[in-house]
């Protein structure tokens, strides 16, 4: 059974998540804005201050989705860019109230509820941050410097996703 998609000129969406007024939490928004300025054919860009299940309408109907967000593990230097696939999060998918659903759990719920309109593949670009508690429209220097690396990571994923979807690929 083939997927049914909304009629779009684009097959890929880059969704930057975060808050523009919470210091480093804005990094996902900034990376998405950088990609948007490039006017890449077939690529939509969105900047959203959402989480949990609210991500689903932002990615429905696209063949591919790249979600860019801040992450605070305290295991890496601020500004470290990490790439993830949905399968990397299988251990963190958990039952929770609809008000407290992490992104991997939201993806799983979306695939169970509406598999035909979910992206074939979702990738994540996570940027280690230092400060997501201070109200500020300015990011810390290390995270500000990581915006270029985040943009490069997204461009790499766009290229990778498009190559894996080409008709001449091997099964």
* Poorly predicted parts: 1-7, 93-99
Number of beta-strand segments: 5
Structural class: alpha/beta
Tally of contiguous helical segments:
4
- In terms of DSSP E residues, the strand content is 15-25%
Sheet with the most strands, sense and barrel status:
5 strands, mixed
CATH class: Alpha Beta
Give the topology string: H per helix, E per strand.
EHEHEEHEH
Helix content: 25-40%
Question: How would you summarize the topology of this molecule?
Answer:
Blueprint: E1 12-17, H1 27-37, E2 43-48, H2 56-59, E3 64-71, E4 81-85, H3 103-113, E5 121-128, H4 141-164
Parallel strand pairs: 1-2, 1-3, 3-5
Antiparallel strand pairs: 4-5
Helix pairs in contact: 1-4
Describe it.
With 171 residues, the chain is of the alpha/beta class. The protein has a single domain (12-164), classed as HybD-like (Rossmann fold), CATH 3.40.50.1450. The chain is 29% helix and 19% strand. The chain has 4 helices and 5 strands. The protein has a 5-stranded mixed sheet with strand order 2-1-3-5-4, covered by helices on one side. α1 links the parallel β1 and β2 (43-48). α1 (27-37) packs across α4. The protein is globular, with a radius of gyration of 16 Å. The model is unreliable at 1-7 and 93-99 (pLDDT under 50).
